[in-house]
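[Q] Does anyone have a clean structure-token version of this?
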Amino acid sequence: MAIAVYANQLTQTMTGDCIRGVWTLKTASGKTLESTDFENGGIWRVSDNHPLGIQTWTPAGASGWNGPVPQNTLKVDIRLGTGAWISSSRKGAVVTLTGTALLYSQGDHKWFKRSAAGVFQYRDRGTTAWKPLKAVRTSSAGTVTMAYTYAPTRDYRFALYSTPISWDVASAVTTR
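[A] Here you go.
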């Protein structure tokens, strides 16, 4: 019996004759956070007040029609959600980009602007590879602006780097 994590949920899949499985979630220090019991498949959703950090789902027993069946062990890395916005303008050959960094607050259960390290990226029209334009850090108000001179049209985005408590993310694309 196997488990896998996608986005903010844990999905159990069964192989062979498995009909029931139990896993225990433990922190890196070995503290048990919770257990889950899946019968014929199931989903564990990560709540927004769940402790952060790397945790391990450890097998606690699985059974099939013919007795015990093996289980996998799965490490999960729980971090806060992040968001990135970009806005842009052009005046002649001068392109101005503004990036905004957001982080999800477990305590308030809402998004807030925050200081974060990131990068403005570009790709030339007709290509698929993103290239770094300039590494930046947003202000304590969560924004950063840069202007530069470049006449041809390009696609731009603002990307934030991962931290121990937050995931990397890229904004939507703007074209100028």
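[Q] Thanks! Anything notable?
[A] The two ends are 50 Å apart (CA to CA).
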